[in-house]
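Board notes (copied after class):
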Amino acid sequence: MVEESDSITGIVCHIKARSSGGPRYDAQQTEEERHSFANLILLCARHGKIIDSEPERYTVDKLREMKRQHEQRGPVELSQSDARKAELLFRHYDALSITAGGHVMLNSPGSVQASNVVIKSPKKAIKIAPPAGSLGCDLSRRNYVKHLIDRYQEFAKQQPGRNFRSPVVYAAIKRQFGANWDSISVQLFDDLVLFLQQRVDRTMLGSINRSKGTPNYSTFAEYRRKYEHHEVPKS
């Protein structure tokens, strides 16, 4: 995907073509579906050319199964070298520069999708609101998810013989849910919570605590009771 010289040879391919007349094009797809994580597959340049040259052999179902089998391996702890190459690949595809007067639409059909947005503006401060319906718009749920992320990082740092890297858990969330943690839909809150709780429980310290009956984290209800104080105004 990335050569030793840092030349990027990996390509993000559309399973169903993004343009009419392309291999496996589906006219019924919306623009949002067409560019969604579910319709993308990462390949080297050689195999990217092969699947588009042989669409009768590499069907939608076959490509989806290839992707499913690859992702079934679960989160991977990257070496420093692999992490650097992955970062170069992400920058190559996800970097976007917007000059003053430009418009960026998030989670909107036909919009530009990017994980890194550089905005150049004469204004001193720029505030970007979280997408509607995302965890970023729900303070209670956002804070609880961050509590679980912090707890995982705290436990993972204490595992002997492990080269801890804090971005790993954020990358794992993005692979699993297709978005940055605070841009994930509130409707997926329970799934995200379970995903993070299981990661905490699987750490060495988490396993030890469980064997002793010691909780590894607060439940959502406990977290709210502890940190959200609502005083009733006196009449």
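Comment from the instructor: Residues 95-103, 105-116, 230-235 have pLDDT under 50 and may be disordered. DSSP finds nine helices and four strands in the chain.
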